[in-house]
UniProtKB/TrEMBL annotation:
Belongs to the anoctamin family. PANTHER family: ANOCTAMIN, ANOCTAMIN-9. Residues 149-716 form the Anoctamin transmembrane domain. GO terms for cellular component: plasma membrane. Its main location: membrane. The chain crosses the membrane at residues 157-186, 237-255, 302-324, 344-363, 390-413, 525-551, 572-599, 680-705. GO terms for molecular function: chloride channel activity; protein dimerization activity. This is Anoctamin. It is a multi-pass membrane protein. It is found in: Cell membrane; Membrane.
Length: 737
């Protein structure tokens, strides 16, 4: 039975004997035979070649690396070599073996000499365990068998699932706090003094929201929106933003401890990736010379410039979304449907959010191609270096793709559009959009909610259905063949070749892309960004992320176990450069939330009013709410006669000469008032204070929670002591010990 275990399967089309492709295939297989590989050929719908590496290759591997695999790393009884090690070493040799024509497997696959090369899903005890106890929707709340995952998929995949499980577990706490903050906002839905003033402002006439068909409107018309805004924009949100900044740090520090414990149990804490790579190079070719590190300032400059050009394109797309919303607002305000006219701003934001999601889907594919092209220009030395370079580039592109529009809505919307009588216009025609009359944070909330919901529903459905439908269709095509197997001749052939059906079934599974695990990480890290950076505007983000992750873990498990070919089990002792990316997001989260509270929210203007201009200060009255009069204080007066010439002034009430708008401007020349500059100074002061306090708390949390548990340090200390003691025994006479 052991002799029927095959490390890899190569698949190719049937080529004519003597053709160029057939000759190249034969040369490559001959090269493997020279290295001692056993090769088995099976002809079915394609030409299959099973390859099995000789024992001496793994003896060399164990000798060079002093058997780095832990004793409990899961063997299949095949020469006591863990199956993950076999696959990894054979994959390396297959992709580095060179034909006499100086062609490698990658070149041959580009030329369609070989169609696919993959390890097999084996019918073993661990396989059945993972299928029954892990890759099922019913186990959604069960703990993951990380050790079994490691035995089957290797350390890199196991660390991904360990990280994702840990992230989801701690996300549960953030989700509960976010839900409490949101529910607390609902309970004070109608009790806010600011909301009451807006609802009672039945005599406050506001400026039209567009140039042509928009009427004057009453501030009290936005009563419901004002209540919703206060549900999001309150003192609890500020505390929650601070909590999430601390949570992000504690999560990463606790993950470092968790990772240290896990990789110590695997005997990989001090594992050296470069040493393993050099060992496998020597196993493949004893004459191999180590590839030198290289750096070209010219090439780096070119790549940096190309990255900046790509970022400029992505920012340009964000500008395009702004123009779309401006034009959409103008369209909705001029439509014949009353509902669309009244809700023009909200409809423009919602359609803009859907369009933003579509651009994210399209640009993700383009960003990937550009990042891969830039990586090829860099000529990275190793696979891990290539992956790290790719990670930094694709995350940078994806960050701008996902967040450029949100950054505009959070920090620029309604602040660069001018004022009545002097609006900033696109092409001298369309007014730049304004914030919703009840506050800018409502627009950010709507945008965040739509994008997160679409990403976590449509994207996940497509991610699962695509390989599932492909798998089902392939199985359907396979059924007639199974029936024909009942005839005697084919049944005998099946008995003679037990590998045939197994290989064909594995071939019919979905292809595993080179960066398939990378895609799962990127998806989660972008979600982590949404969950932390603008959480002050969307307290439900952690809850949505938590629910999504419960499904994501099982979705990824089902894809890997049932729908895709087996992934190459790479060895790793951490999650790589993703940790630095997560730490960078933690810092961006502090800056982002500080800016949302200082600039987007009405929190600072309200506090300035309470402690400087409110009745509590001016009249020394404690019997009234200190925010009484805030709305009147935040309105400015505009003379109707000062409207721009091409603005169609709506019907006015008898004797109406003025209207109002939300801003801090003088009535005579529309310049900013002293209150505007007080609030501006308070915003800056709060931003500096919030960021310094949050960063200090992050540093204290990072210091307070050690990266490596004491048990791990003590274990290494004991090991060192025992090793030194053993060495000393060989030197000292027996009587002196």
């Amino acid at each position: 039975q052991d002799e029927e275990k095959w490390d890899f399967v190569l698949v190719s089309d049937f080529h004519e004997v003597g053709s160029e492709k057939e000759t190249k295939r034969r040369k490559f297989l001959d090269e493997l035979s020279k290295k001692g590989f056993t090769i088995k050929k099976i002809e079915e719908e394609k030409l299959f070649h099973g390859v099995r590496a000789p024992k001496q290759i793994f003896r060399k591997y164990h000798w060079l690396l002093r058997n780095p695999d832990a004793a409990d790393s899961g063997t299949n009884g095949h020469h006591d070599v863990p199956v993950t090690t076999r696959i990894r070493v054979v994959h390396f040799i297959l992709h580095h073996a060179m034909t006499p024509d100086f062609e490698k497997l990658r070149d041959l696959m580009k030329q369609k000499v070989f169609e696919a090369a993959f390890p097999l899903h084996e019918n073993e005890e661990v396989t059945e365990f993972l299928k029954e106890k892990w890759a099922r929707w019913r186990d959604i709340f069960c703990q993951q068998p990380i050790e079994k995952i490691r035995c089957y998929f290797g350390e890199k995949v196991a660390l991904y699932f360990a990280w994702l499980g840990w992230y989801t577990y701690l996300l549960g706490f953030a989700a509960v706090v976010g839900l409490i903050v949101f529910v607390a906002g609902i309970t004070i839905f109608s009790s806010s003094q600011v909301s009451k003033e807006i609802c009672e402002a039945t005599n406050t006439i506001m400026c039209p929201l567009c140039d042509q068909k928009c009427p004057f409107w009453l501030l009290s018309d936005t009563c419901t929106y004002a209540k919703v805004t206060h549900m999001i924009d309150n003192e609890g949100t500020v505390l929650f933003a601070m909590f999430m900044a601390i949570w992000a740090t504690v999560f990463l520090e606790l993950w470092k401890r968790q990772r240290a414990t896990v990789v110590t149990n695997w005997d990989l804490y001090r594992w050296d990736e470069e040493e393993e790579e050099l060992a496998m190079e020597l196993i493949n070719d004893m004459q191999h010379k180590p590839q030198q590190y290289q750096h070209s300032y010219f090439r780096s400059t070119i790549i940096l410039l190309l990255v900046l050009v790509m970022i400029a394109v992505l920012i340009g797309i964000a500008h395009g979304l702004v123009i779309f919303r401006v034009v959409a607002t103008a369209f909705f305000t001029q439509t014949d449907y009353e509902f669309l006219r009244e809700q023009a701003n909200t409809m423009a934001v919602m359609t803009g959010a859907v369009l933003h999601y579509i651009t994210i889907v399209i640009m993700t594919k383009i960003n990937r191609r550009v990042a891969l092209y830039l990586c090829d220009l860099e000529k990275p030395r190793t696979l891990s270096q290539r992956e790290n370079n790719f990670t930094v580039k694709i995350f940078t592109f994806q960050f701008f793709t996902n967040f450029s529009s949100l950054i505009y809505i959070a920090f620029f919307l309604g602040r660069i559009n001018g004022h009545p009588g002097n609006y900033v216009r696109i092409a001298g025609k369309w007014r730049l959009e304004e914030c919703h009359p009840s506050g800018c944070i409502t627009d950010l909330f709507i945008q965040m909610a739509i994008i997160m919901l679409l990403k976590q529903t449509i994207s996940n459905v497509v991610e699962y259905l695509s390989p599932w439908v492909t798998h089902k269709l392939r199985k359907k095509r396979q059924r007639p063949k199974k029936r024909s197997m009942m005839s005697g001749e084919e049944e005998d052939e099946e008995e003679e070749d037990p590998c045939k059906r197994h290989w064909v079934n594995n071939y019919r599974l979905s292809k595993v892309e080179f960066l398939s695990l990378f895609d799962e990480f990127l998806e989660m890290v972008i979600q982590y960004s949404f969950t932390t950076i603008f959480v002050a505007a969307f307290p439900l983000a952690p809850l949505l992320a938590f629910c999504n992750n419960l499904l994501e873990i099982r979705l990824d498990a089902i894809k890997m176990m049932r729908l895709r070919r087996r992934i190459v089990p790479w060895k790793a002792n951490d999650i790589g450069i993703w940790l630095q990316v997560l730490e960078a997001i933690g810092i961006l989260a502090v800056i982002g939330n500080g800016l949302v509270i200082a600039i987007t929210s009405d929190f600072i203007p309200m506090q300035v009013y309470k402690y400087t201009y409110s009745p509590c200060v001016t009249e020394n009255s404690t019997a009234v709410d200190c925010s009484t009069g805030y709305i009147n204080h935040s309105l400015s007066v505009f003379r109707i006669q000062d409207f721009e010439p091409h603005t169609k002034v709506p019907e006015m009430l008898p004797g109406q000469e003025i209207t109002e708008y939300r801003d801090y401007r003088n009535a005579d020349d529309y310049s900013h008032t002293a209150q505007f500059w007080h609030i501006f100074a308070a915003r800056l002061a709060f931003l500096i204070l919030f960021e310094h306090v949050a960063l200090c708390v992050k540093l204290i949390a990072a210091w307070y929670v050690p990266n490596v548990p004491k048990s791990v340090k003590n274990e290494f200390r004991v090991r060192k002591h025992n090793n030194l003691r053993k060495k000393l025994r060989w030197v000292m006479p027996r009587g002196h010990l």
